[in-house]
Write a structure and sequence with these properties.
The protein is α/β, with parallel strands linked by helices and 253 residues long. It has one domain: 3-Layer(aba) Sandwich (Rossmann fold), CATH 3.40.50. Helices cover 47% and strands 15% of the residues. The protein is globular and about 50 Å long. The protein starts with 8 loop residues before the first strand and ends in a 6-residue tail after the last strand.
């Protein structure tokens, strides 16, 4: 049976853990050649080993998406290894400081969150798009969040960055649709990842409250977000661009 991403290469930022790891493994299972990019080397190498154990082809690239030169080098490494860039998942992100009101939020933390979550997505697209144009098109998926579709108290920089990702996605979708590039965003609710577990270890009552905000009655699994990512990047979604697709267990209802 043919796999839907055979012959295609995909670059995944933040591909070392959590959602990025699940997405990378899902693409590998579907035959993609996978370039993992992240700052934490040991976790990246662990994910790389999993993909290779599955019989997949993959490389790991150490990169900080907020740094222009590192982004350029990351994309060049992917293209040099695989010969092309067909899909990109711009997933790298940080949460910032939680439950701090706007007036008390530290400027340093604000800058860190915006640099990685929003500027990082822009920088990646800035250098991914020309490579895709060379191939006659491609698909880009940007990681937003339900925090990009509503407000809340988790942290103003996180909400601002994730709203910004959706605006950036829509702008790029319009600008490059005629050149065969689709650009979409995925908006997960709370997913069982290491980031979420750190928060819940400190407050199990918070975990119960968060679960109660999802009508399905549980948190999401990384593989469920990965399934949406695969579809949005696949030929099955060839008439889909510029959307912000929730994967939220009813959270936004």
């Amino acid at each position: 049976m043919n796999k839907q991403f055979e012959t295609k290469s995909v670059l995944i930022t933040g591909g070392n853990s959590g959602l990025g790891k699940a997405i990378a493994i899902a693409f590998a299972r579907e035959g993609a050649r996978v370039a993992l990019a992240a700052r934490r080397i040991s976790e990246g190498e662990e994910t790389l080993a999993i993909i290779k154990d599955l019989g997949g082809e993959a490389i790991f690239i150490e990169a900080d998406v907020s740094d222009t030169e590192q982004v350029k080098a990351m994309i060049n490494s992917c293209v040099s290894k695989f010969g092309s860039l067909d899909c990109a998942v711009n997933n790298a992100g940080i949460l910032g400081t939680e439950f701090i009101p706007v007036a008390d939020y530290e400027e340093k933390v604000w800058n860190q969150v915006i640099d990685i979550n929003l500027k990082g997505v822009w920088l990646c697209m800035k250098y991914q798009i020309p490579e895709m144009i060379k191939r006659g098109g491609g698909s880009i998926l940007n990681m937003s969040s339900v925090a990009g579709l509503k407000g809340g108290r988790v942290g103003c920089a996180y909400y601002a960055s994730k709203h910004g990702v959706i605006g950036l996605t829509k702008a790029a979708a319009i600008e490059y649709a005629s050149q065969g590039i689709r650009v979409n965003a995925v908006c997960p609710a709370v997913i069982e990842t290491p980031m979420a577990e750190v928060a819940f270890q400190q407050d199990r009552e918070l975990e119960a409250r968060i679960i109660g905000m999802h009508p399905i009655g549980r948190l999401g699994q990384p593989e469920e977000v990965a399934a949406a990512a695969l579809w949005l990047c696949s030929d099955s979604a060839s008439f889909v661009t510029g959307i912000a697709h929730p994967v939220d267990g009813g959270y936004l209802l």
